[in-house]
Amino acid sequence: MQLTCPRMTPIRWGIVGPGGIAEKFVADLRVAGGGTARAVVSRNMDRAKSAAAKFGAEFAFDNIEALAVEDSVDVVYIATPHQAHFEAAKFLLECGKPVLLEKPLTVNATQARELVQIARARGVFLMEALWTRFLPIYQVVRDWLDEGRIGRVRWVDSSFCVRGDLDHAKRWMNPHLAGGSLLDLGIYCLAMTQFVLKQKPAEIAVAATMSSTGVDEMLTVSLGYGSGTLAGFVCGFVAGGDNRLIIAGEEGRVEIPAHFIAAQKAVLVRGSEVEVSEKPFNGGGFEYEIAEAHRCLREGDIESPLIPLEDTLRNLETMDAIRTKISLKYPFE
Length: 333
Description:
Strand content: 15-25%
Largest sheet: 8 strands, mixed
Shape: globular
Order of helices and strands: EHEHEHEHEHEHEHEEEEEEEHH
Structural class: alpha/beta
Number of strands: 14
Number of domains: 2
Mean pLDDT: 95
Low-confidence stretches: none
Strand order of the largest sheet: 8-9-10-7-11-12-13-14
Number of helices: 9
Radius of gyration: 20 Å
Oligomer: single chain
CATH topology of the largest domain: Dihydrodipicolinate Reductase, domain 2
CATH superfamily of the largest domain: Dihydrodipicolinate Reductase, domain 2
């Protein structure tokens, strides 16, 4: 059973996978306050030492076993490539270490169910670090929806498309590293659709452009939720988009302008009436998921109501179904 962290005591973080995302995380850890980087793990000890010095962490390890037995580490943030999430998180959870795990939580729903079962059985905190779900503007959007400001929601539409580097040596093009646009980009569209509709789709239709490496370069997905509610998204590395999110109801709509994954503004439209809400970041945007993790640890919660583990499982089940439709199975599955 995890221990509740005293409110005035800094929460000490272990960082697994000290890449660019981890650097952003540690920068926003300072913004969030109440926590500090304590240890860094990399397979390369020189890289671990370099990152530890940069992050202000006392310990550098080249193996996760050393991190697991370090009593001064309260919680671990895992920012490794997708395919490495499951084994690292499973080992740490079984050792009783709380885990904040980068999106996607795991490569598939089978792996995720096992992690959730371990976390719940042992009473250990586990949360998917899908930072968009924690941004302040989405609490405003949630309030608008719950208050019925746009009436019954009938469709949700989003995109996350970038002009990326299609070099086959890159991680996101490598099937051995769980590459492809769905797990890197589409997950945000699906997670925010889940945030709005609070259910899994009953129907799924997919069209995709596949790379010669076997992963999806671009795909478009249509989702049916029954009772006349639809959703859809497009994601990919081959061309840029405005990357907006639209939530349309029978009495109005909510528009999240370009780059909804990092939203600081939302627009409510009802006929000729327009209401704008803005919630600027305090840092780079990760500080809100960090603050929620800190709250959970201090209050003894093993999962967050802002991104319940059931939401994470449903999204992975849907992504599994999408990958089945485009015959994308990773070599290690």
